[in-house]
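We emphasize that the prediction below concerns an isolated chain of 134 residues; any contacts that depend on oligomerization or on bound cofactors are therefore not represented. The input was used exactly as deposited, without trimming of termini.
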Amino acid sequence: MSQPPPYTPPNGPPRNPDTRPLPPGWIERYDENYKTWFYVNTAENPPRSSWVHPLGPAPPAPPPSGYAPPAGPPPPNDNRGYSPYPPQGPGYYGSPPPQQGGYYGAPQENRGEHSSIKGRKGRKGKLMHDGWTI
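Result of the prediction step, given as a token string:
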């Protein structure tokens, strides 16, 4: 009984990563045993093969054009790290403006001196607020 032929990928060999042009008379071939490319100078008699491109080793790969994630795993989600969402709350862009009136709330009608401070009259008719004479 005969064995089936060796598996050949349906689309042929993978694409050669070294895309530099070859000098005249050179061809490239894929070696299924070593799963790599080699080059043949057909202008020589007999033709000579080489694992190295006729122009020499491939130049170093260019730096990646995109961005890569930072090294290591992401921090635990404890809301202390960087957030991709803009901050929320008073004073930040996109949040409602703070209400008028400052610390004491909405503006009140003017009823004379110390009208915005709530308190009581203490000894000698002086206005008291949280135990302090104003």
